Amino acid sequence: MGLLSLGTPLDWYESRKHNEHVRDNGISQLINIFAQHQNRDNDKFYWGDEVEYMLVELDDNKKTVKLNIDYDHIIDDLNNSALEVGQKAVQNNVAFHPEYGRYMVEATPLAPFDGNILGHYLEVESNMRMRRFLSQTQLPANIRLLTLTSFPRMGCPGFTSPQAKPIGPASQSLFLPDEIINRHARFPTLTANIRKRRGCKVAINLPMYPDKNTKLLDDSIPDRELFDSDAEYRWASKPGHVYMDSMGFGMGSSCLQMTMQAKNIDEARYLYDALAPVTPLFLALSAAAPIFKGFLVNQDVRWNVISGAVDDRTFVERDLDPFPGYDYFGGLDIDKSVKSHLQKMGGGRGINGDRVFNVYGDTKLATNDGKSVQKIPKSRYASIDNYLVNESEIDKNFNDIYSPINQPVLQKLLKAGFDPIMAKHFAHLFIRDPLVLFSERVDQDNTLENDHFENIQSTNWQTLRFKPPSLYSTADVGDLKNKPGWRVEFRPTEIQLTDFENAAYTSFIILLSKAILRFRPDFYIGISKIDENMDTAHKVDAVTDDKFWYKSFNHWRLDANEFHGYDLSWFDRFINEGNDLEAYKQGYYNEPVHNAELTPDCIKHIPCVNNACKYTMNELINGNDSHPGLLRLIIKLIAIDLVPNTLKHCDSKILALKLERIKHYLMFVSKRASGKVPTIAHFLRSKVLNSPHYHKDSKVSDALNYDLIKLCDGITKLDFENYHDELYEYFGTAVASYVETNREVSFETV
Ligand code: GLU
Ligand code: MG
Q1: Which UniProt keywords apply (predicted)?
Q2: Is the pTM of this model over 0.90?
Q3: pLDDT at 265
Q4: Residues with Cβ–ion distance below 5 A, ligand 2
């Protein structure tokens, strides 16, 4: 989840003295990065994924499950090439990384996959399987490496093994001990600095799932007098909501991320834009988090929990009155005398929502180092704010939300020759302060290092991340081709229980990205509509019960006829000799599609605003009579670019097996979109609601949690012997029967 520098991390009150230094040098580093890489071209479409795991300890005698916080050393062993397991990891192209939680492990491919090689879309699954297998060899049998988005009883009494009390000074949480936080000094410092900058603990309130006996009261809040902040819940917690007060509730959740490399910066900018409206769709399609802190909640995903968990904005930045006795300016470095004047005189709002205080004429309020204090609408962990292609290429109105800018940064970037959009993008990210700074790393060589840039960049946790390359010494510049280039990271997806699903979602997004670059659809809608979709994606069963804004099918700038026939049946026609592939290539029996012209989407799909209409997830992914949906873009891409184009029909058993598996990946996502297969959130919620341990009070007890995790473990292992019916319910019949007979990806050459 970010840069791991070694050294002594500075406490917020020390660190904040260097805020401008970090930003200023970070921007110089960015300018040098652009100078070095701006013109690189024709980089390969490489890609990779990141999976986040939790170590869950099961006690079959006591029927309890806990998060284990004592096995974090396995990450070092797994990466130690002096050990056999470390060698195996390298031989199998696997790498392990620390994450926020001491009970967490992250794993990725060591070297990226190649988007032009069909087999790599399958290799990712065997790679994921290997990551799990190698980690599991380092653990006792009762500690399972599970891909749970959120641990249902995180923050409940005694939820860790070994037990630890929630009395830690870093988070000051009433529920989470500091011992859940990664031991690397960066993480507790990050936790404490967010709290200190904000001026109070973070606060997350999730609506409880309202059931017959639900009290609509979070009765788990203890009456404690250890820290001053212990009383904050009185103002910070909301009735009818589950209250959480610590970074760990969010950053202790797991997700699935994918990163792809574009051939050049312009392609990366367009890909970033085109994926923006896809992000809420995949949040909803991957929904896997219906339970927090032992409560069934009235939402399905982790997103707003993390948003709140790392929200370091002060009261003034959030435009809220402070709690009684709390500082309006949190941990910002502002003179006491200025503050007391302001408190008396009040103020107004200038252009762009910046606070303006009359007491100093019309000067903007600023910290002692000159940084203006702004109203900031979103947390650092949030959806994106601006498109990246040049505004001349799209309707200006699509960038329709207010996103504050760091003006001096903007001016510096413009002066350095950045175009206004690119400059605005980074000037927006650079409204944030660095959260953790290491004393040994304050001074850096801006021609060789980019830690200051990365410090700000990698703590802007947005739905997408536009990733510039790193900076290299002149000696290395010669072979830039072998160094990572301009990349886009896709970050909303919740982690799924099985490697099959995670491979399916990864392949879907990577193939979609490749298809986007191949067919260049126009997916632009107002950013505010994407934000609305983010809210929708949180709702219970949003996939089946809600609609999402998307560019009107009529305005994708694609000819629907050209995608006709490229539905899931294409795989069967291609694989089986004798089917009339050529005819279908032109569409079903060459029948052109007229519907699109006859009934424009903006009439069928009301409301329609600026060419954005509301669609069901099924329509968006699976298309309809008049439109390809996202799925057919992918299948056409496979047909024309990823299978040898000299082939009329599949000519080898291995190719057929590969395509068969990819078909099932796509089919699985397609069925989730149509509602034929439940989301994990839906599946888990129904297990809770139907459990004998459930008392219609929205509470998930230890016993119920044990049953749930046991089931999740059985599903993860694809244990058809003991969980046959559950696995069929989970995957749906078609995919379950395929997975049951094809558990492993075992092709001779993939
Ligand atoms: N665990 C975080 C999430 O669920 C992501 C952390 C990271 O950026 O690696 O979104
Ligand atoms: Mg991570």
Answers
A1: ATP-binding, Glutathione biosynthesis, Ligase, Nucleotide-binding
A2: yes
A3: 97
A4: 1, 106
